[in-house]
Amino acid sequence: PVDFWRTKHAVEQHLKASGLSWTILRPAAFMEMHAHELIGRSVMAGATAFIFGRGDRPMNFVAVRDVARLAVKAATDPALQGRTIEIGGPENLTQNEVAALYGRLCGREPKVRHIPPGALRVLAAVIGPIHPGVARIMRASIAAGSRDERWEARGLLREHPMAVTRLEDVARRFIAARPD
Hints:
alpha/beta, two-stranded parallel sheet, 8 helices, 53% helix, 16% strand
C-alpha cells in the first residue's frame, strides 16, 4: 500500500532477473530513524513526541550497525548468494513503549500526542506536494498501524549467530552523547 515498499519490491524483482549474483536484505524499521529520530529525540528534548496512530501495535526495530554486519557477511560469503534474508532486532515494542523507554532513561515523563489515521491521510495529501518524503512517512505509518510489524529473531540468530542490539542500548548511546 506504500510507494516505497512497491519500489523496493520492483527493485528486488529486477535484481533477481538480472543475471547478477545477489543477496537481498530486508531490515525491520531502523532504530536510529523510526525510534530515535521520530520519537526519542523529542522525548530527550522535553518536547512533544508525535506518534502517528494509537502507537499501541508492537513492531520490530533493528540497529543500522546490525544490518551493516549482516551486509558485510552477505557480500563476502558465497553461501548467502541468491538468498533473501530478513533482519530485525531482539524485541518488538510499540511506539508508546519507545516513548516510555526514552522517558525512563531521561528521567522525565514523555509528552506524547497521537495523530489519528484520518488526520494523517488529510495531512499526507496536503503536505505531499510540498514535502513528498514526510507524506510518504505518514502513509507508511497508516499502513504499518494496520499490519503486524512484529518479527522474531531466533531464526536469523540460529543461522547467523551475532549479537543484535536492543533499542535501550541505542537510546542510552544517544542520551549519553547529547550536549547538556
